[in-house]
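Ticket #4471: structure export looks truncated?
Reporter: QA, pipeline team
Priority: medium

Steps to reproduce: submit the single chain below to the structure queue and open the exported record.
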Amino acid sequence: MPDASTLGTVLRERRERTRPEQVGVVGHGRRRTGGLRREELAELAGVSTDHLKRMEQGRRHPSPGVLNALARALRVSRAEYEHLCALAGYAPVEGLVPRQLSDGARRLVDRLASTPVCVLDATWTVVGWNRAWEALACGVPSLHPREGNIPWRVFVGQGGQVLRSPGDDARFRRLLVAELHAASTRYPADEDLASLTADLQRASAVFAQLWASTPTAGQHDSRMLLRHEDLGRIALDCDTVHIPDGDLRAVVFTADPGSTEATSLTEFLLEARSAQAGQ
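Actual output as written to the record:
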C-alpha cells in the first residue's frame, strides 16, 4: 500500500545526504548544508520545485515516471530504488531499457525542426533525431550496431566531431561510465545493456579501468566546439533536457541569437533543408 508520508521523508533525507558534486552540480554559491538543494534536484529530475516540495511533504504522490526520474537524478542503488518503489506502491522496473520515443520526445523532435535535436535512451544511444541534427552529422545509427551509442563512439570509435580539451574529455568519459553504471542498476535484466558494457570493457582499457572504479558523474558540457566539413569549427551551446517518460534525454544544439555562429548555423541548415527538399 502506498505510503506517501514515509516516501516523502525518504526522498528528502536522500536529497540532503547527496553531495552536489556526486550528481554533477557545481558552482552554486555558499551552502548552509552539504546536500542538494530542492530546486537542484527538481531541475535534475525534470519536475517543478513546488511539485517536489509537495512530494517531500507527503502531499503529492509521484507517477512511476517521476519516481524513476528522481531515482536516476539521485543515483540511488538498486536496493534504494526498490525501497522507493515499495513506498510508492509501484513494481520496480525490471524490464528492458526503453528504446522507443515517448509522445513527448517525438513532439520535441518534430516541433524544433530548425534546431539540431537528438534523443538518447538510458544507455546514451541515439533513438531519435531531426533533420537539422542529421545535417550537422553529429552521430546517428548506421549499419554498425554500436555506431549510434555515444560511449562506444567515445571509447572505441572515432569520437565524432566534438573537440574537447584533455581535461574536458576525461570528465566526459567519467560521466558516460557513471551513467552506464546507473542504467545497469535500473535495468539489471537488460541483456543488450550488459552486452554493451562487457564489449566496452573488452574493447577499451580506459573504459575497463573507469568501470572498475565506479566514478561519480560530473556535469555535462554546456558548450561544444564542433568540427564540421562545411562550417569549420563552430562553438554551440549544448543543453540536455531530461524526459522522465521513457527514461530519455534530449540533446539540443543552439547558438547565441545574433552571433556569428547563429548566422552560420541558420544559413547552413537552410541550405541543407533546401537540398533535402530537392532530393
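Status: closed, not a bug. The export was complete when the record was re-opened. Leaving a note from the reviewer for reference: The radius of gyration is 20 Å.
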